[in-house]
Design a protein that fits this description.
By secondary structure, the chain is of the alpha+beta class. The chain has 8 helices and 6 strands, in the order H-H-E-H-H-H-E-E-E-H-E-H-E-H. Strands 1-2-6-5 form a 4-stranded antiparallel β-sheet. Strands 3-4 form a two-stranded antiparallel ribbon. Helix 2 runs antiparallel to helix 6. The longest helix has 22 residues, at 81-102. The structure holds 3-iodo-tyrosine. 3-iodo-tyrosine is lined by residues 95, 98, 111, 114, 116, 176-179. 3-iodo-tyrosine binds at residues 95, 98, 111, 114, 116, 176-179.
């Protein structure tokens, strides 16, 4: 028997804050001033981070808009040294293949200013790794599947919110994409229909952390926007 589609029920927009034009411009600028300080970091401190900070950031990510509000994401938070070690070993194996042959010359040339290589000690040093999974479909308690829509878009938006939330909290992040990263399913105990989307490394930067100057240079507004 097909389910009867639920009729929409509407409620007043209760939590929207109306702001005067000058105030909202100032706030938009304020957010820019904060988020432009975010840097991708590859040297992490092992200093502990409160679990609650990660939990709040994940709640923020979970507010992201998604196709039909089906929220097609799962966040596996890895804090155990044993799981981090397994992830590091598996990622470094893939990265060695990438840097020593799998990656085309053009790709390696594009990466050269960032100074990346196959060595990923931060996967063990950082207190938290968040493996983000994209769910092709959801599974109801009775086992039926619910197709998800706009999965990469939805998971990308949630990931952006997570990165912004962690940065705002005062944490450094690294978006790490070992390729392929199927090993994350096994280590995190996630089902096959969840595709690893990204491995987000979070923690304090190392005290002597250096970042590549080239990565700080962002395209100006004129280059990234057209106004019609
Ligand atoms: N996954 C590799 C290579 C890499 C690829 C891109 I595109 C980057 O922006 C950075 C790195 C690595 O993590 O080293």
């Amino acid at each position: 028997m097909p389910d009867i589609p639920a009729a929409p029920e509407f409620e007043p927009l209760a939590e929207f804050t109306q702001r005067a034009p000058a105030e909202l411009t100032a706030r938009a600028k304020g957010f820019y001033e904060e988020i432009r300080r975010r840097r991708t970091v590859r040297e992490f401190s092992d200093r502990a981070v409160p679990r609650a900070a990660i939990e709040w950031a994940l709640r923020a990510a979970g507010t992201a808009p998604s196709g039909a509000n089906l929220q097609p994401w799962h966040f596996a938070v890895i804090a155990s040294p044993d799981a981090k070690r397994r992830i590091r070993l598996a990622a470094e194996e893939e990265e060695r293949a990438f840097y020593s042959g799998r990656a085309p010359r053009e790709w390696l040339d594009a990466l050269a200013p960032l100074g990346t290589d196959a060595s990923k000690p931060f996967l063990e040093t950082a207190p938290y790794l968040v493996a983000i999974f994209a769910q092709k479909y959801g599974v109801l308690p009775d086992g039926r599947r619910v197709t998800h829509y706009y999965v990469p878009e939805s998971v990308g938006i949630a990931t952006g919110l997570l990165i912004a939330a962690l940065h705002t909290a005062g944490l450094a992040t690294l978006t790490h994409t070992p390729s392929p990263m199927g090993f994350l399913n096994e280590i995190c105990g996630r089902p096959k229909h969840e595709k690893p989307y990204l491995l987000l490394v979070a923690g304090y930067p190392a005290g002597d952390c250096k970042t590549p100057r080239a990565a700080r240079i962002k395209k100006p507004l004129e280059e990234i926007s057209t106004w019609l």
